[in-house]
User: What shape does this take?
Amino acid sequence: MSQILNIKNLSKEFKTGDQILRILEDINFSLNEKETFSIVGPSGSGKTTLLGICAGLDSTSSGDVELCGVNLGDLNEDEKAILRSQKVGFIFQDFQLLPSLTALENILVPLELQGHKDIEKIGIELLEKVNLGDRKNHYPSQLSGGEQQRVAMARAFANNPTILFADEPTGNLDEESGENVVNLLLELNKDAGTTLVIVTHDLELAKRTQRMVVLKGGKIQKEASTI
Amino acid sequence: MTNHQFKSKATIGWLWKMSWRDWKASRKKLYLIIASIVLGISAVVAIQSFGANLKAQIKEDSKKLMGADYIVSSRQAPTEKLSFILDSLGGAKAQEINFASMAFFPKSEGSKLVKVSGYSGDFPIYGELETFPVEAADAYFKHKGALVDATTMLQFDLRLGDSVKIGKLTFSIIGSLKSIPGKSAISSSIMPPVFIPSNQLDSTGLLQAGSRVGYQYYFKADSLQNLKALEQKLEIVLDAENANITTHTSAGEKLGKAYNNFSMFLNLVAFTALLLGCLGIASATNIYIKEKKKAIAVLKCIGVTRKQTFLIYLFQIIFIGLIGSILGTALGLFLQQMFPLLLKEFLPVGVSFFISPKVIALGIGLGVVMSVVFSLYPLISTWFVTPNQVLRAQETDNKNTKILGYIIAPTITLTVFLFSYLLLGEIFISIIFLIAIVLVFTAIRLLAGLFIVMIKKSFPKQWSFPSRQGLSNLFRPGNQTITLILCIGVGVFLINTLYLTKDGLINNATVQKDSNIANILLLDIQKEQIPGIRGTIAGFNQPVIDEIPVIAMKVHSIKGIKTLALKADSTNGIKEWVLDGIFRASYRDSLISSEHVLEGEWQGTADQSEVIPISIGKGFRKAGKLELDDEITFNVQGVLMPCKIASIRNIEWSSMQMNFAVIFPKGVMEDAPQTNVLTTKAPTDKIAANLQRALVKKHPSVTVIDIRSLMVVVEGILSKIALVINFLALFSILTGFIVLVSAVRTSKFQRLKENAMLRTIGATSKQIVKMTIVEYFFLGILGAFSGTVLSLIAGKMLAVYTFKAPFVVSWIPVVFIPLLITLLVVIIGVLNNLSVMKTSPKEILKG
Assistant: This one.
């Protein structure tokens, strides 16, 4: 099985005034194809920062991140963006749909970025998969939180990503909607065979992935197989 | 490492599609930006299109305007040499002899100052003499009758067949004059034309020495003749004979220049409207793009590159610019059709409407350019939005944005300069305007920054929660303080500067009334006529207020250099009219109330043995490049009078007193050939009419000017000019208001969520309204009054240096406009938040 994500000696610091704030320190782990993985830890432990760096949204202070065989440190911002459009899917805590686009248009954007044509059918199929076939022309503001997150999931899987990053995917949802979203996410992921990285502070959710790391104070406190 | 292809497959078409999708959802926020562009562009298109139409019409009609290809004019009967020159030119096709005189209408017993003309030959060579009935144009000569100005006939209730007395002769009115090539409606309303047969002119007894008679010879040129070369060749020769030449091409150019101040103001209006439009675009797009940053971060996160995100929003701005400029151009073309109606009486030609492709291209091009250039800063800032902003709120990389700001600022500056040059047409004025705008912008920016620092430093902790919250909104992250204060400040600056300029121009064009000053002037009085005229005035129990000698003269040399040599040297900067013109000077021993000495010393008397110490007006000083103690020699009907400038006066020409640019002291000019002006004051219209009638009957060669009736005509014209100026200024001011509404309205989205959050945690609607009032009051008052103070400086400079008009300050621009703007800003701010109060906080926070 090929390696999809490889983190070596990763550190991240911020300078605030005269002080240097160390957010992440000496992080090492790797993920294989189709593996599911969670990053857990209390608030402020550096989970979201780690996810941002792994996905090329943020840069490291030191260390290497290799995503889909490419060292992110060698890429400029645009190359990272193109890599994300081809290989990466995202799900965010606050959904992050484009407010000026309908549900269907939001799903089509990653496909259009790939230059695909006649994609409306694919978009509608994806919407049907997340049980929102009848809401294709609705704008995000016309959807509930759970519905928005399902559209976000459909968008995340639209370009058949190699790896999918989910940042607290249930964080803004009630228990029932959260449970539905997680079930759907894991089901879609299984069908697509995508490598999945979930950032969460919900240990129950983390246990549903194959492996997890526990972050505390910016360091990996524990790395474990959950199954 | 995998061999990865980093090439985006998204096409330009997709970028347009994304841009369109975003536009569809956001268009309501963009309508006001479009309104700014529409108003800015429509003002430019209307004014430019009208200008292009007028220019083209003048060029096309220049021959009709003059009635000839060229005219040779003289103020004296032709000398032998001038006759020879006229013959050598192939002989004039038509000749006109004219003079000002009182016309007496026996039917109504009324009299009026008119311009009497006698034509011989084939006048007009071009264009048409429009009369009623049509055949009267030819018949008046044959029947020894007269043609009288149509308005004058109406005024005196004259019919065909009634009579008019000119000098010693009485003519039957054969027809009315409706239109004469080369005569404008304005000149006709001040001195209406009366045509009599040329062979009757002598018999009127008015063509005598001292009369102001004009001779004009109308010529037709060969189609291939170079008129410019002819003008240059004849100028000096004719000058020696006290004559000059005007070709139809140079007359057209001069006519264009005559409308200079007015067209300068029109272009200032267009420039102001355009700048206001730019300001609207800059402030609104700045806030609009700020709101889009989260969406931009999402786009980058899912793989859109920096260039692509930039282009998505650039296309949107281009689209907005296109819509705005197409609508603005259409509105401008519609508005320009109203100008000829409004300006009918001031225009030398009837302007027919045609659509100039150049003006359409200018309107659309300007609209798109202004949209893009004034959105560049927020557009470029999209480049620095990091995808990481989807995970956590963070400020954009300000350092890079600032560096780019240094590149964009010169681009904007250059664009403003090009706009001003395009509209104002003079590099120097454009540079001054640009510097002024940069200074205003900087001053208001500094003031806004200082204001924020001051609030932070001395924050009124004792104020109530809503007031403190409202005040702290001015410096908290995401505040719009600087953008809005700049927008309001610069907006008010432009509105007020235009308002002050408008007031100055209108005031400049207003006749000053002074009840103590004479209201009847009697001109062209020979010395021997004075006792008789004094007697007539005394017969009506009225006083002679002034007896003013008038001496006609020409400049012979300045500082020892003869006028011919001075004219040949185009670098000396001396105005042609100083070297060419015949002056009417006077002599007296004291100053009058409409003048005061600026420099030097007034000398009321002098001796014939010395170089004559004269006093000149400051306008004459400037036009003649003269200074104190400079020598100037005048030619007074062949006698050279060497003078030196002893004093320079400021003269209020609009005072309706007899003012002279050149005043001699008493004791040297008493024996020079002269005419006299007597002034008197008639207390009622009836006495004025009776006095005039008596004077015209007894002294037909004397010209009587009734200042009161003249003032009615002049004030009628001026009130129409004021109407046009007000209309145009209002147009620009309206643009300013739209821009302000647009900017303040766009800021609504900034505070919406915060206020919804405050309501969630228990703030009442009243508290939110109070917070809003405090925030927007400070934004409004600071912006409006800083703009006002700066506009007073700019208005003064424009009045003094550009329009040479008085600087008039009224309470409207100083108090009313800033207060109105502040109130408007507060009202829009409160209205913005009404939607928060009407909607449940949950819905807003859900976004």
